[in-house]
């Protein structure tokens, strides 16, 4: 049963949380993120843009091979609330087709660019079997390159079991994000957290 709402926090009994990465895949930063999670034996969810998947299919395949989840982040990264429902549906479908080419299966997680949703978009996503995914650490604003300490401070304060965290591995210089994620992953694993995909998080006992 799909929840017709933006999911950013799950009530779970275990110390698990989900790191998510938007706007990739990127040949430099996505691979740096993969190395961090490889070292931590963790998994993440990558909300990929269709056009970037077409540009870097080998990176998308690498993400999938390493056991991470690929989610739908539309084909061209528009604000879906500014499109007709037909055009919004086409954005989802074009990206979905690319995900299926890489993974061999449909994705069930969708993140709207700019968190741009309304009731129509949430319903459209639900009709297509998607859970629409938000995040608890939007104030970190890693997409604006606010500095590693800013990203860390505004993520640490939002973390608790069941949290979904947002970061970016595509579009522009993401070196601050990579460094902040490296620190956070080490800290959270040391605190006993397990790093899981969004789909795994949604299946945990409530």
Automatic annotation (TrEMBL):
Top-level taxon: Bacteria
Pfam family, one: Polysacc_deac_1
CDD domains named in the record: CE4_NodB_like_6s_7s
Domain NodB homology: residue ranges: 15-196
PANTHER family xref list: GLYCOSYL TRANSFERASE-RELATED (PTHR10587)
Name the record gives this protein: Polysaccharide deacetylase family protein
Organism of provenance: Paenibacillus taichungensis
């Amino acid at each position: 049963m799909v929840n017709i709402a933006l999911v950013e926090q799950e009530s779970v009994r275990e110390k698990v949380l989900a790191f998510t990465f938007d706007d990739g895949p990127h040949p430099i930063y996505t691979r740096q993120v993969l190395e961090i999670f490889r070292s931590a034996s963790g998994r993440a969810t990558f909300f990929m843009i269709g056009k970037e998947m077409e540009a870097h299919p080998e990176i998308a395949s690498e993400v999938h091979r390493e056991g991470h989840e690929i989610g739908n982040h539309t084909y061209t990264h528009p604000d879906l609330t500014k499109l007709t429902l037909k055009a919004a549906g086409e954005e989802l479908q074009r990206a979905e087709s690319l995900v299926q080419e890489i993974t061999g299966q449909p994705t069930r997680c969708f993140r709207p660019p700019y968190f741009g949703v309304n009731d129509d978009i949430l319903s459209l996503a639900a009709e297509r079997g998607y859970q629409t995914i938000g995040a608890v650490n939007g104030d970190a604003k890693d997409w604006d390159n606010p500095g590693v300490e800013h990203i860390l401070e505004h993520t640490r304060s939002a973390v608790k079991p069941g949290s979904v965290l947002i970061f970016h591995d595509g579009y522009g210089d993401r070196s601050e994000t990579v460094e902040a994620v490296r620190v956070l992953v080490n800290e959270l694993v040391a605190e006993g957290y397990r790093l899981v995909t969004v789909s795994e998080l949604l299946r945990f006992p409530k």
